[in-house]
Amino acid sequence: MLTGVPTANIIFAMIRRFIHKALVLLCVAVFAQSDSIAAKYAGEPFHVGVGGRALGMGGAYVAVVDDVTAGFWNPAGLSSLSFRQLAFMHSETFGALLNYDYVAFAAPLRSTKDSPVGAISLTRLGGGGIKLTDGDARVPQVPVIRKETGHADYQLLVSYSVRRTESLRIGASAKFVYRNLADNSAYGLGADIGAQYSLGNDVTLGMMVRDVTTTLLSYDNGTKESIFPTLIPGVSFSRVFGDVSLLVAGDAEVKFENYRETAQYWQGSISADTRLGVEFGFMNTAFGRIGSDIGHLALGGGIVVSSFRIDMAYLRNTDIDDSFRISLLYDLE
Q1: How far apart are CA 225 and CA 214, in angstroms?
Q2: Contact by Cβ (8 Å): 195, 76
Q3: Over the stretch 54-63, which tens digit does the pLDDT of each residue have?
Q4: What's the CA gap between 137 and 188, in Å, rounded?
Q5: What is the residue range of 87's domain?
Q6: Labelling 304: which of 26, 114, 142, 268 has CA 20 to 30 A away?
Q7: 202-260: pLDDT as tens digits
């Protein structure tokens, strides 16, 4: 018998109806906002990955995810949960100038087997040290610091997932975003949908459509931006050899915004970036991981202690800065 389900129902009872209405409203909003600007990189701060396990595998997680982080990677994976789960993550980049934080909660909505699962996730990517300047009237070449401020991007995901058959899982996330950028701010709405399909015990196919309704950002200065949909197909292969387990996964992030040379592969306006990952496990307790995130090396490891899972990841990136992530998952069984 699942504990805590009545409380979870209070939190999530209206998720299915909410997401359905949100999708309808968002589709209407897409046509109403025809004057918005299609900004290629407007959505990047909202697409930074979560969870040390996924990041240690290079982000190749669409067909793998089966825990609370599915609200971000592929909401269909939430339906694999049969108990409540919490997740936390923190990372710092550029000498703590850029901080990334994540918290999420998921729970079955009923006490029956194959219950629908709901989740709430929140991410924040931000930092400080931005100096806003004005010109000196007496010496125009010398800037005068008007004030020092910060910036932050927030994303709230409300997710719902259900197992349609023994092999098929589907899910959706309604997203609310807020951007605080120096003297300006913006609000936005969007949605993600996903599916996972198991081919026997070893192979799983995954599909995620991020920003399926086109996520709209509306700034306080009247500017509007559109974040176009991204298609992410993936596949995973798993096998157990006694006490040792092997997991291999791959994803392709397909966009239609004319990224061209900035992507790994492109043809016309269509582009694709790939992610590959491998995980080795021992007695389902200790794990080592290696991956490729758009050609950048990713390494990671994890350990399970009682109801806790601690995962760490390192991402090599010579163009900007190396990243280190640590995350904690807690099972409330």
Answers
A1: 10
A2: yes
A3: 999 999 999 9
A4: 38
A5: 5-332
A6: 114
A7: 999 999 999 998 888 899 888 888 888 999 999 999 999 999 999 999 999 999 888 88
C-alpha span between 207 and 73 (Å, rounded) = 10
Q: Which residues have C-beta within 8 Å of that of residue 196, sequence separation ≥ 6?
A: 63, 74, 76, 77, 168, 169, 204, 205, 206, 207
Which H or E run includes 9?
helix 5-12
SS3 of residue 66 by DSSP: coil
Number of H helices, E strands in the chain: 4, 18
Domain with residue 193: its CATH number is 2.40.160.60
Give the model confidence (pLDDT) of 245-265 as tens digits.
Answer: 999 999 999 998 888 888 899
Question: Token pair for residue 58?
Answer: 């290079």
Longest CA span, the chain: 77
Domain count, the chain: 1
- The pTM is what? 0.81
Polymer length in residues for the chain = 333
- Distance between CA 72 and CA 70 in Å, rounded? 5
